[in-house]
Design goal:
The protein is built from two helices and five strands. With about 130 residues, it is an alpha+beta fold. Strands 1, 2, 3, 4 and 5 form a five-stranded antiparallel beta sheet that branches.
C-alpha cells in the first residue's frame, strides 16, 4: 500500500505541462504583440508611400525647373500642368535685381501639389533666372 501511494504521488508530481488557462494567457500576450507589429507595419507602409510621393513631386519640380532654365527669358510665362496625381504650377514674375529700372530677372516659384491618405500635400521650388 505504501509503495502504491509513493508511486501515485511520484506520478502526479511528474505531470508537468501547461494548463488551458496558461495557454490562453500566452496566446493573448502573443496576439497583443502581433497586433503592435501589424500597426507598425501599416505605419511604415504609409511613411514609404508618402516619401515616394514627395520624391516624385520634387523630381517633377526639378524637371520643370530645367525646362524653364532652357526657355528663352522673354518666352517664360506662368503656367500649370498635371502629371498623374501631381498638379504642377509655376509663376515667373519679372524683377529688377540691379535697381536700374530694367526687369532683368525672374523669380520663379514652382509648386507641386498632390493628394494622399492624410490629405493634400505640396512641395515648392524657388529659383531666379537672370536675363543674359
Amino acid at each position: 500500500m505504501l509503495a502504491n501511494q509513493a508511486l501515485n504521488s511520484k506520478i502526479e508530481g511528474d505531470c508537468r505541462g501547461f494548463t488551458l488557462i496558461e495557454v490562453v494567457i500566452a496566446l493573448a500576450i502573443f496576439s497583443i504583440g502581433i497586433l503592435g507589429i501589424y500597426a507598425l507595419q501599416i505605419s511604415s507602409i504609409n511613411g514609404n508611400t508618402s516619401a515616394r510621393n514627395r520624391t516624385q513631386a520634387i523630381g517633377w519640380a526639378a524637371n520643370r525647373m530645367e525646362i524653364l532654365l532652357e526657355t528663352p527669358f522673354a518666352a517664360i510665362a506662368d503656367g500649370q500642368e498635371t502629371q498623374g496625381i501631381y498638379n504642377i504650377q509655376w509663376t515667373a514674375p519679372q524683377v529688377d535685381i540691379n535697381n536700374d529700372g530694367v526687369n532683368d530677372a525672374r523669380n520663379i516659384q514652382i509648386n507641386v501639389t498632390w493628394n494622399e491618405l492624410g490629405g493634400s500635400k505640396s512641395t515648392r521650388l524657388d529659383f531666379t533666372k537672370i536675363e543674359n
